[in-house]
Structures are given as C-alpha cells and as structure tokens.
Write a structure and sequence with these properties.
2 strands; 3 helices; alpha+beta
Length: 79
C-alpha cells in the first residue's frame, strides 16, 4: 500500500471512529448535547489504540478542551 492510499484509509477510519464515538449522543462528563466531539484517551498517534472504541469518549467542546487537554492525568482515568 502506498503512502497516499494509507493516509486515505486512515482518514476514513478516523471519520468512522469519530461518528461512532459521537453517536453516544451526549457529553459523558457533563451531559450536554451540543458541539459533541470524539476524544482519544490514549493519543491517536499510537496506532495500536487509535481506532479502538474503548479508547474514545464523547465530550462536548468545553469538556474536551477545558478538561481533557488541561488536566490530562485526571482525564486519562475517565471519571
């Protein structure tokens, strides 16, 4: 598989993973429904867990950036 095909496949897998995680329907931290995002618990650079559904959590924008990115140790334990 060449580099272009690999990147295209990774992008498709990222999209499918994100849709599945966001289908939870509300933020798993605060319960809000708007602006949902799929967040990786273990950073997505690690390919062995990048598309693992157990490595994802549905968060609103605020919880994703004001909790997950500002308090990564607390976030990694997935309250």
């Amino acid at each position: 598989m060449n580099r272009v095909d690999r990147r295209k496949l990774e992008k498709e897998l990222d999209t499918m993973w994100s849709v599945k995680i966001r289908s939870f329907g509300f933020c798993e931290r605060c319960g809000k429904k708007p602006s949902l995002q799929a967040a990786h618990i273990i950073p997505r650079i690690h390919k062995n867990t990048r598309w693992d559904l157990g490595n994802g959590i549905c968060l609103c924008w605020s919880c994703h950036f004001n909790w997950a990115h500002k308090h990564p140790t607390e976030f990694s334990y997935k309250e």
